[in-house]
Structures are given as structure tokens and as C-alpha cells.
Amino acid sequence: MTDIRYLAPRTLDEAVGAFAASQGAARILAGGTDLLVQMRNGAVRPGTIIDIKKITELTSIEEAADGGFRIGAAVSGAALAEHPRFGRVWPGVLEAVNLIGSTQVQGRASPGGNLCNASPAGDSVPALVAAGAVVTVQGPKGRRQVAVEAVPAGPGRTNLGPGEIVVSFTLPPRPEGSGDAYLRMTPRTEMDIAVVGVGVSLTLRDGVVAAARVGLGAVAPTVLLVADAARALIGSRLDEAAVHAAAAACRAACNPIDDKRGTIAYRTRVAGVLLQRAVAIAAERAGRV
Amino acid sequence: MNAIDNKWIGRRTIRPDGADKVTGRAGYAADNSMPGMIWGKVLRSPHPHAMIRGINTARAEALPGVKAVVTAKDIVDFPLDKSVMLGIQDMRWMCRNVMAREKALFHGHPVAAVAATTEEIAAEACKLIEVEYEVLPHVIEIEDAIMADAPILHDFLRHEGKPSNIAATMVNKLGDVDAGFAEADIIIERSFKTRPVHQGYIEPHACTVSCTADGKATIWSSSQGQFMVRAMTSLLTGIPQSNIRAIPAEIGGGFGAKTIIYLEPLAVLLSKKSGRPVKMVMSREEVFRGTGPTSGSMSTVKIGAKKDGTIVAAQGTFYLQAGGLPGSPLRGPVGCSFAPYDIPNVLSVGYDVVSNRSKVAAYRAPGAPLGAYATECVMDELAEALKIDPLELRLKNTARPGTKAAYGVVFGSITFEDTVKAIRNHPHYSAPLDRAPAKGVVRGRGVASGFWFNAAGESSAQVNITEDGNVTVTTGHPDVGGSRASIANVTAELLGIEHKRISVLIGDTASIGFSNLTGGSRVTFASAMVVTQSTEKVIGQLKERAARIWKIDPEAVVWSDGAARPAGANAGQFPPLTLKDLAAKANEMGGPIGAGIQLTTVGADPGFATHVVGVEVDVELGIVRVLRYTAAQDVGRALHPDYVEGQIQGGVVQGIGWALAEEYLFDKQGRLDNASFLDYRMPVCSDVPMIEPVVLEIPNPKHPQGVRGAGEAPIVPPLAAISNAVHDALGKRFYSLPMSPPKVLAALDG
After folding, report:
1. Is B572 left (phi over 0), alpha (psi -120 to 50) or beta?
2. Residue B381: is its pLDDT beyond 50?
3. 20 to 30 A from B486, CA-CA: which of A34, A75, B654, B695?
4. Angle A264-285/A91-98 helices, nearest 10 degrees?
5. Are A65 and A111 contained in the same domain?
């Protein structure tokens, strides 16, 4: 009954222009795996839909000379999985992106959409936070770069300004001895939503943690960067005391709710367990012997 | 017919409906559409408990595109003081369930329905209906509903002389339990809780209805019984059954829940008012809020035994949630819980408890899993306390032919002990168990048994020989579990022809005689019986035709390998006359060939099952995973093994979901908080192992092919089997379901 304008601009400038001009009545369409569901259940009624999949910068994956990656915000999980190098460099990020939805949904769902949907339980976000991904955003006032963890503002809300569109994610070059991992707890093995999600990225030098980042999902209004957990790991040889301290830091960072998907006590406890398990996987990938 | 050298019975033939289903051509209820069709939508109560003081539909009716609005006043009223039964359904409750009458009894209870030219307009019109509610305090859980100061749902319900939410009591009694317990060396008494679980069929309820100006209604809908649809719609709309034609669509799962109706009478009334065909399709959210599930329960089971394991007395008390209107499946736990065992003194009591949630509907062996959960967990504790193997304890007390069950029957040819022995002798039961395969991981094994009554009843069939010498078989039963494939096998066996030459069809209410519901594990039993009798009549006709052609006595003709043949040398020397030969001569030799039978079948002996399960518990996350599952059951004769195995596997999977994951969650406002498949966590394929059915075929002597109902017994043991396995793994017993991760972890910590 309501008319909806559908736009599929070829350039980012056109997309930003239309988005800004809509004054909040438009929604960005990447894969649509959240947007279309929200439209169907009546949660959102956009006047305009701006499809960003025709814009090359948003759908391409580039590996820079220094080994860093730039991933377009609308790249699908399936396209990322098919990239010959990405999954070898960032297996944890890829695992996390590939956990979004079923095989069919993977053909559409994108990390940019997952971030902008701003669910605290979005799977790709903790892994991208752990990876130290930087988001390129373009709006009416031009381009800016922002840490991935700074984008979500709360469930369903972001810190993006009016007319701003997430363009891409930049992942830093990977030093030797690096590995990442993402684990989530779901009661079911498939077709479920994270009760807790933990992303860990490590760089080891001679068995000592030279760099670490930890992202924690579904335990607070937004995905968290847990700096205390990283600090507990850095400088250690991942001995039991260091990993326990990092797990304790994750538990301390939790500020979850009791809901149909999990209790406060359960989420808090499990955050620590998954941290330990994700650290073990990341360390193995980093080449720890 | 029971011979091992059967050519078709027992073969894994391709199911007749298979190609359509895998290519997306099968016609489910929501696939139907008609010229001029409009859309119906239901307005549902936003309150779990409220008096309806008035409904103003004027604004909705004025919305352009709206063609009809109906409310409870359009539906036939069945006054509260007089019970009118249709099968096991009381129409007093059914008329109030399809549309709230005096009060809204649950969040999601229909209060009005609208038909409009588009779904969007119908939805918009629902919002324009003004309902004046007087909101009342609500009550959701059994323990709250039976408190003295609980909000009372129905003034007319009395328990022990006082207004109460206990709507009914059922008692099964045998011997004297007090005297029995006095003799016992050991008594174990435990209390259990289960949560309501939904049947979880993939296909939401849907129908299309066309009422014509001369008062005739045609209904296309998905159900477990087109005759039930016709009868119930007739009672609720006042249209005589002869003016209603109910056409069964393919069914996308029912599991008992489609043995009642929700939308059909509303669509009939909307179609009648608007003069247009009306289509209605529930959303998944509506399915969760407004239909099913089966009851949650509170049970206490007490079993007393001698030191040697002989059980001397058993007592069960079962409180079941009925939903907003009476009618929980008390017979399940009350009758089934102790039925596998020969116990001289039994007292089994059930209470039907109403509260502000959707009215329960049948779910696979209705109520029996709740009772078996309590009983079979207590049996496990008894075996542990007596240091007896749990299967040996069951064998020691097994019911046998001649045992009198507390629910009143003296058992005939039952085979419970065969199922126990099948598990005891299975490699799974004796396989080495690695109890701690990794850090933080433990494993365990558990067993449990179960019983279901099974059912027979009314069925009709028509077998016709086509003019080209092939066969059509029509029955009156929606096919929920492969019954068409089984019937094709039976008919092919009897006629001695390729099964592909037989088309098995499901007739509508105008094209086949009355047939009772697909449910109770009765359809393969009953329809094979009427199809057998019909086919035998047809074979009689064929032999008569051959006798006339050969000019010999019909008794000198035999039917074998798809042809009439002289019975022996004395009968004469004639080349065989095949089905095709006889069909070609049908007209000249006496007319069309075909026969039908309408029968109230009897002889459905009960079903028993014994299961063993291996589980693994991640003690850091509280996750229980089922690693291996073996389910033994006597099915009499597996007419088509794929669909017997499918029934066993399906029942077990539903039991796994019940034990570990599924539950209705309500918020403080009395609204269901997880009305979606995302948050109502049924298991998915990757959550369950391949379930191994051990199909015992001990023919039921009361059935021409030896069939025993198979579909329901397999959901009865899993709740307890898994609980017992979790105890074996953790050394800790759980007394409530589901054993979900937060609950398991909290128990391990606590």
C-alpha cells in the first residue's frame, strides 16, 4: 500500500546524495537479509531503498602491496569465502562472516550490513574488532575513517551521521606469526544467533604474544573491544595464568541482559570459556608449537 | 501376506507423492488460489486475559476494499452448560477457541476476522476494529494456576466444590496402592516438570474457501482429516455436512495438531458474507501464538519394589496444562505411564489445568511422553538403588499378554519385552563408553521405554480397475507419513502387479466414505485393512469374469501373479487372463470392475518402544549433544520400511528437542516471547546423529498384513532416555526439561 522508491546508483556520490536527501526516510540495501525481514514484519517502512551493490568500491576485495586487505562493505560472505587469499590471512574473520545465516543467506549477507544492523550479537563484528579493522565511511561532508568498534551505538543504532554510508573495511597487514579465531555459543549447531561471541587476534614472536586484540559480542549493548583481556595476553607465553586473566577480563567486561537467548550468569561465564578456546585456536594458527 | 517372500510388502518403493514434493509441485493449502479470491486476516487479543465488553467493526467495514467482517456472534454458540462432543473435542471449547466469545483467554486469541481485496487492506482493517477490553489478572504456569488465590479463568469450572482452574480429573486404578507400598522394600518418589512444546510443522495453517449463493461451501485446506474439517465447520457455521465439501491439500506436517481447525469456519463465514472465495494463511508467529502446543506438566511418580526388583506398587499424579480452555491429554500420562509393566497396584491421577495460554492440541502420543518421562526416570533411579541393570529391571516387570493394565484392558499379543531384549542385545548397549574423551567433556548412556495405545476406527477405501487394466485406490486419509506408498505396496502384493500400475489417491469428503482422522497411529493399520478387503472383493470379481469367459465355476479360478488362472488340471486348460485382458473385456462381461469397503476397524494392539542413547556434555558450556541413538520398536509389519523408519526417527528427533531445547517462554505481560523458529529452538539436522531404528516385525494377528501402529510410540521414551544418559554422564539428575545450556551449567555450578 505504501510506495517505495528503489534506487541503485552506480557511484558512491550518487548514493550519498540520495541518502542525505531522504532525510532519514531511506534505508541502505546491501544483501537485504536484515532489511527485508524488518520490512516484512513491519519494523521499518522506508520511503526509499538505496541499493549499493552496483557500486564497485563496495563490492570489491583488494589485497594491498603491504598485505593489508580492503573489503567492500557489500561484499557477500560467499564472495569473501571464494577469495583465494583472504581466508588464509584472516581465517577467524572469514569464519565469523560465514556464520551469518544459512548457505543461501551467505550469498547475500555482508559484513557492512552486519555492522550497520548494529545487533550486539552480529557474528562478524567481534572478529573484525579483534582484527583491528578500520571502517571507511562516506557522507555529505566527505570521507572519514573510524575503528569498527566505534560504529555501533546500541542495539539497532549506529554512530553514523546523517547520510553516511559504510564503504569498506581495511584490515592491517599481517606480521609473521599472526592468527585469529572467532567462536560463538549457540544452543543449536546451525540456524541460530550468538548467545556469546568472541573474536581473538594474536601475533606471536618467539612464543611471546607481541600483539593481541579481543572482541566480545552479545554480552553488552554493543560489541566490545576488551583491552584488558588483550593486555593480559600481551607479553605472556599464553600460560594458564595469562589466559585465565584474559578470561576474567572478558567476564568483567560483560554487561549482558537476561533474555530468551541466555541469562546474565550464563553469558558472563561463557564469555570466559570462549575466550580461552578462541585464544587456543588463534595461537595454533599463529604457529605456536 | 506375512510371508518373507513378499514381492512388494516390505520393499522400499518410490513414494507416489515424492516427485511432486521434491520438485515443488505438490499442492499445499497455501498454494491454492481462485478467480475473485480475497484475503482473510484474524485480529488477535493483545491481552492474555480480558473480558470483551464490546466490538465495533464499523470503521473496518468502511475501509475501501473490505468485503466482510466476522466476530463471535457469527459463529454457532455452544452454551457452557451442555457438552457437544465431536470425537474427543468438546464444541463448547472449540467455538470459543476459534473466536473469543465472552472473554479473551490468551494473548493471540482471535477476536475478529476480516476479508478484503488484499492482505494489506485486511491487516489495516484489523487495526480499525475497536475492541473494548476489561483486562483481568492472568495466570500462565500450572503451579500458579492451582493456587487458592489464582485468577479464575472460568466461573463454571468447579474442583472439589470450589471455583478452580482444574477443569477435569482422570483416575486409573488397579489393586490397592497403599497395601502395595506397605509391602515394598524400597520406594522412590520424585517430582518432574516439563514445558509446553509445539508440534513445529513446517506448513502453517491455511485454507481457501468458496461459498456459493445457494449455500454450498467448498474448503481446500491442510488437515489430518477432511471429514473432521467438514464436521467441525458444519457445527461452527450451521451449514449441513451435505453442503460442505472438504478437499484435503498435501499436508506439510501435523503431528496431531491438525486434528482440529482454526481458520476454516472463519473463512466460510467471510466467504458467505462477501460472496467471494476467501483465502487465509497463518504467519509463523500466529502459529506459535494461536495454535497447539502440547501441555507442559508437573508430575510426581512413586514406585515401590522388592529388593529383587519386583515392582509392587506405582502411583502417578500428573498436572497438565490445557491452555485457555479445558482439554489436555490426560489419558496419555494417566494411561500410558505404567502400561509397560505388570504392576499389581497402580493409582494414576491426572488433572486438567486451564491457564492463559493457547489451547493445547494433540501432539504425537498426546501426553504419553510427559508421563513416561517421570516414570522412566524413577525406574532408572530404582535400578541404580537396587544395583540392577535398568533393562533387566524392565524385563523383570514386563507386561505380557494377559497382563491387566491400569487403564482397563487385559493385553493381547503385546511384545514389550522383545523391544527391551532388542536393545539389551544391540551392540550400542554393550559398546565401550569413553566417559571422558577430552578435557571438559563427559559422556554417558541412558535407556527408557514407552507405550502408546494405538488406534483403529472408521476407514473407507475404493479400489477401481481402470479401463486399460491399471488400478486406482482411494482412501479418506491425509497422508502424513508415507501411507500412500504403503498402500501401493499392499495393493500390488494382493493383485500381483507392478506397484507403479497403482495410483493411490486421497479422496475428498464427497468422493469417498467417512474416514476418521489421520492420528493415533491408526491410518496404515486401518487403511491397509479396508484396502485389503476392497482389493479382495475386486479379485473376486476378476475371478468371476474369468470363470464366465472360460465357462467354468468361479471357484475353479485362482488369482496369482496378476492373472486369473485355472485352479488345477481339473478346471481345464486355459491361458491366464491378466488384469489388462479382463479390463478390456469388462463391458461385455458385466460392467466396470471395482469395489469399496467402509468399516469400523478393530484390532489395533498397542505399541511399545525401548531406546538407548549416548550423550556428550560440554561441562564448560552446559551443552548436551546426542551422539548415538538406537530405537527398538515392534511395528508388526513394515509395509514400507522407509516410512516406518522415518516415523521412528522423526519421533526421536522431536523427543530430543523436547528434552534439550524446546520451550514456550512467556514475558511478565503473559505474552509468548519466542514466537519464531529462531528462538523456539527445535533441533536442526546438524544437532542430531543418524538415529538407528531397530524395527521388530512380530505380526499383529488381528491385521491382514500384521500391521501395528508405529508413529507415536517413538516419541515416548526419549525424554527420559536422554535424562538418564545425562545423569550417567554427570552423576547429577535433572528433574525438569528442557536441559538447556544455561540450566545445565547452573546445575553443574550449584
Report:
1. left
2. yes
3. B654
4. 140
5. yes
pLDDT tens figures, B692-716: 999 999 999 999 999 999 999 999 9
Q: Would residue A128 count as lying in a domain?
A: no
Give the closest-approach CA distance of A99 to chain B in angstroms. 14
Instruction: Give the model's pLDDT for residue A289.
Output: 59
Of A1, A260, A270, the CB nearest to B665: A260
Domain membership of residue A12 (yes or no) is yes
Percent share of chain A, pLDDT over 90? 93
pLDDT of residue A2: 63
Does some domain include residue A126? no
Q: CA-nearest residue of chain B to A272?
A: B620
How far does CA B730 lie from the centroid of its chain?
Answer: 33
Q: Are B304 and B184 a contacting pair, CB within 8 Å?
A: yes
Residue B748: closest C-alpha in chain A = A266
Res A122 pLDDT > 80: yes
Give the span between the Cα atoms of B169 and B167, in whole angstroms.
7
pLDDT score recorded for residue A21: 95
For residue B717, give the nearest of B433, B328, B416 by alpha carbon. Answer: B416
Mean pLDDT of B78-95: 96
Q: How confident is the model at residue A1 (pLDDT cuts 50, 70, 90)?
A: very low
DSSP category for residue B151 = P
Same domain, A31 and A108: yes
Q: Tell me if chain B has a CB within 8 Å of the CB of A188.
A: yes
Closest listed residue to residue B376, CA positions, set B451, B459, B318, B438: B451
Q: How far apart are CA B163 and CA A257, in angstroms?
A: 39
Looking at B267-345, which runs of residues are DSSP E strands?
278-281, 297-305, 311-323
Question: pLDDT digits over B30-63, tens only?
Answer: 999 999 999 999 999 999 999 999 999 999 999 9
- CA atoms of A111 and B419, how far apart (whole Å): 53
CA angle A54, A55, A58 (to 5 degrees): 115
| pLDDT for B382 | 98
Which candidate from A185, A191, A263 shows the least CB-CB separation from B684?
A191
Kindly list the structural domains of chain B, giving each domain's residue range(s) and its CATH number in brackets, ordered by start: 32-136+200-290 (3.90.1170.50), 297-454+605-749 (3.30.365.10), 455-601 (3.30.365.10)
Residue with cell 508440534: B199
- φ and ψ at B618, to 5 degrees? -85, 105
- Are B41 and B122 in contact by the 8 Å Cβ rule? The answer is yes
This complex has an ipTM of: 0.93
**Is B358 within 8 Å of B293 (Cβ atoms)?**
yes
Rounded to an integer, the average pLDDT of B191-204 is 97
The tally of domains found in chain A comes to 2
Q: Name the one residue in this structure whose C-alpha cell is 461451501.
A: B217
Q: What end-to-end distance do the CA atoms of chain A give, in Å?
A: 63
- Taking only the tens place, the pLDDT of each residue in B2-30 is 556 899 999 999 999 999 999 999 999 99
- Nearest-Cα distance to chain A for B49, in Å, is 23
Phi first, then psi: give them for residue B467, nearest 5 degrees: -60, -25
CA distance, residue B64 to nearest chain A CA (Å): 12
Share of chain B above pLDDT 70, in %: 99
Q: Is residue B681 within 8 angstroms of chain A, CB to CB?
A: yes
